[in-house]
Amino acid sequence: MSLAIFDLDNTLISTDSDHAWGEFLLEQGAVDPIAYREANERFMADYKAGTLDMAAFLEVALKPLADNTPEQLTAWHQQFMVSKIEPHILPKAEELLARHRTKGDTLLIITATNRFITAPIAERLGVDYLIAVNPEVANGRYTGRVSGVPSYREGKITRLHEWLEDKDFTLDGAWFYSDSHNDLPLLEEVDHPVAVDPDDTLRQVAEERQWRIMSLRGE
């Protein structure tokens, strides 16, 4: 029995949930239609290029959580799951999760997307453990600030080791599945790194290091 760790966006689901949430907010008229769309697209491009300023991104991404009531956010998220996430649930991803469950492995999603967006997705996929960016909460409302270290690039390793401190799990024999070169630090940390529908940079590294490369999309 080992720890099976999964990136979420464009790995277990065929979309980026952070970007999709931004698109959803635009459709609801909840954010500035010009400035927010421009920022959403710019940050997505920066992420793909490996040049994302995480602090600047989170300042924009977490503001709508602070600007709206928990009740409104919950209602929106239910709509978001139906329209933006459910169509991107990958049957092969669910099969992969099921194979690890059958082996008795412990399943964990680790993502640079915030917990508000991703906790219901992890629940939908039947994954009990989630490490995500934690939006700060005060007096029952989101503040628009981040709590703790963002789980992005090397931050994923920091957060994972923090999570492991009070668990019985170790990284011995651990798996990590990801599509993104941004996850190279964590891929290098585990015994079984797997590139899933990888971007060009990750594919090249995986081929050079003879890591497993797989697809969860299509036939």
Automatic annotation (TrEMBL):
SUPFAM superfamilies: HAD-like (SSF56784). It comes from the Bacteria. CDD domains: HAD_PGPPase. Pfam families: HAD. One of its GO terms (molecular function) is hydrolase activity. Keywords: Hydrolase, Magnesium, Metal-binding. This is HAD family hydrolase. It comes from Halomonas colorata. The lineage of its organism: Bacteria, Pseudomonadati, Pseudomonadota, Gammaproteobacteria, Oceanospirillales.
